[in-house]
Amino acid sequence: MSDPTNAGAPARRTARGRFRFREYHVTTVPDTLALPTVTAECVTGEGHNCGATSGPLHTPDELTRWIAEHCATTGHQDYEQTVRSALRAEPGAWQ
Ligand SMILES: [Zn+2]
Is the pLDDT reported for residue 27 higher than 60? Predict the structure, then answer.
């Protein structure tokens, strides 16, 4: 059997749990380092969605343009957007 514990984590026992966890601050990486992307998917349809996707876009204008073009050619009006942005964990003090 393999050891299920994380070899990199300190294994101190406490009254409330087996381990002490390091506190992390998770922050959004500034736009200059990693542009958030947004993807639109057409969910128009009875029974099953159209499923057409825009691919990753970087501005609301690009998103609107893709939806407008798709709507113009298909008449589809229902979409979902997925926003993807980079996060960074900043190790904090041990608690
Ligand atoms: Zn569609």
Answer: yes
Are residues 78 and 71 in contact, defined by beta-carbon separation less than 8 angstroms? no
- Location of structure tokens 């990486």: 29
**Ligand 1 centroid from CA 82, angstroms:** 16
Q: What is the pLDDT of residues 78-94, one digit of tens each?
A: 999 999 888 888 777 65
Q: Is residue 17 scored above 70 in pLDDT?
A: no
Please check whether residue 49 is in contact with residue 6, taking contact to mean a CB–CB distance below 8 angstroms. Answer: no
Q: For residue 44, how far is its CA from the centre of ligand 1 (angstroms)?
A: 6
